[in-house]
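Quick one:
INPUT:
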């Protein structure tokens, strides 16, 4: 099975999304949130799809 990489959302796009949802954050905070969400996504994928 071929390994797929998750496409990373540009941080500026993520910051704009958070702003529209009423969450003001600076670049460093947005990077931390996106890193957390990426890690969480990878955990879910591994658990649900038995992927290494």
């Amino acid at each position: 099975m071929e390994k797929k990489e998750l496409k990373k959302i540009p941080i500026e796009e993520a910051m704009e999304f958070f702003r529209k949802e009423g969450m003001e954050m600076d670049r460093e905070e947005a990077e931390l949130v996106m890193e957390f969400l990426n890690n969480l996504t990878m955990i879910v994928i591994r658990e649900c799809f038995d992927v290494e």
